[in-house]
Amino acid sequence: MESSKAIVWINVVTAKPGKLDELVVIPAEELLNFKRKGILGWISSR
Predict the structure, then answer these.
(1) Which domain of life is it from (predicted)?
(2) 30 falls within a domain
(3) Residue 37 vs residue 22, higher pLDDT
(4) Is 37 inside a domain boundary?
(5) Range of the structural domain that residue 24 is part of
(6) C-alpha–C-alpha distance, residues 24 and 27, integer Å
(7) How many domains does the chain divide into?
(8) DSSP tag of 11
(9) Whose CA is closest to 45, among 13, 6, 18, 15?
(10) Measuring CA to CA, which residue among 46, 6, 1 is closest to residue 27?
(11) Which residues fall within 8 angstroms of residue 43, CB to CB, at 6 or more apart?
(12) Alpha helices of the chain — where are they, by DSSP H?
């Protein structure tokens, strides 16, 4: 199914002390999952 509607996803988070690496790794893995499933635009997010 194709859609012409844009999706905006904004996360605002604060890392707990000593947990920054974990905070970065999990969303990065999910972005790669989006790419594998053919959801365009995710890899170019900032």
Answers:
(1) Bacteria
(2) yes
(3) 22
(4) yes
(5) 16-46
(6) 6
(7) 1
(8) -
(9) 6
(10) 46
(11) 31, 34, 35
(12) 20-36
Q: What is the largest CA-CA distance in the chain?
A: 42
Q: Percent of the chain beyond pLDDT 70?
A: 72
Token code pair at residue 44:
């170019």
Measured in residues, the chain has a length of 46
* CA–CA separation, 12 and 29 (whole Å): 18
Does any domain span residue 5? Answer: no
Quote the CA–CA distance of 26 and 45 in Å, as a whole number.
Answer: 15
pLDDT tens for 18-35 read 988 888 888 788 777 777
Q: What is the pTM of this model?
A: 0.39
CA distance 24 to 17: 13
| 38 located within any domain | yes
